[in-house]
Specification:
Shape: globular
Pfam families: HHH_5, RuvA_C, RuvA_N
Number of helices: 9
CATH class of the largest domain: Mainly Alpha
Organism: Cognatilysobacter lacus
Mean pLDDT: 85
Largest sheet: 5 strands, antiparallel
CATH architecture of the largest domain: Orthogonal Bundle
GO molecular function: ATP binding; four-way junction DNA binding; four-way junction helicase activity
Helix content: 40-55%
Keywords: Cytoplasm, DNA damage, DNA recombination, DNA repair, DNA-binding
GO biological process, one term: DNA repair
CATH superfamily of the largest domain: 5' to 3' exonuclease, C-terminal subdomain
CATH topology of the largest domain: DNA polymerase, domain 1
Number of strands: 5
Order of helices and strands: EEEHEEHHHHHHHH
Strand content: 15-25%
Amino acid sequence: MIGRLRGVLVHKQPPWLMVEVAGGIGYELEAPMSTFYDLPEVGREVVLFTHYAQKEDSVALYAFLREGERRLFRDVQKVTGIGAKIALAILSSVSVDEFARLVQSGDVTALTRIPGIGKKTAERIVVELRDRAADLMGIGATLGMNTGVPADPQSEAGVALQQLGYKPAEAVRMAKDATAPGDDTATIIRKALQSALR
């Protein structure tokens, strides 16, 4: 299927975005917050790395701004018990470089702070990916985002955190605690996720 997708960004609301390509064809893609942080404004051109996944009863298309993110998304799903949802939560919670550092250092405690990862899964990640972690270093993701539509930035951040796997009450609390006057949605989400890893 498609490896890279070039088109005009027509909609973005975490975790979904839509890109219109030549001929008016649009693709709906799911993306981690690391991608949303750096997306251009709606109406601007964007180039994305994609991953196509087909199961018995569904088809999904995932989007990433950087090849390193797509690579980590694929690598981490090779670990027993990890699927696309947890892989997206990892990329939404930490940068590729930070994840590689956590794996290399065997920091199971920090890995369990990522939504959907328990102690046993974190231990499997360390064992199964430690050898590959060094390859991921240096190809990481940077942050910085601007989204589009709904209510206020704090509420929008709460919704995005729920999409990442946090329980509604916890997501609302995290967004509230991370909000400072003038913060946009991206800043609130970034601060909330960073705080959750401490």
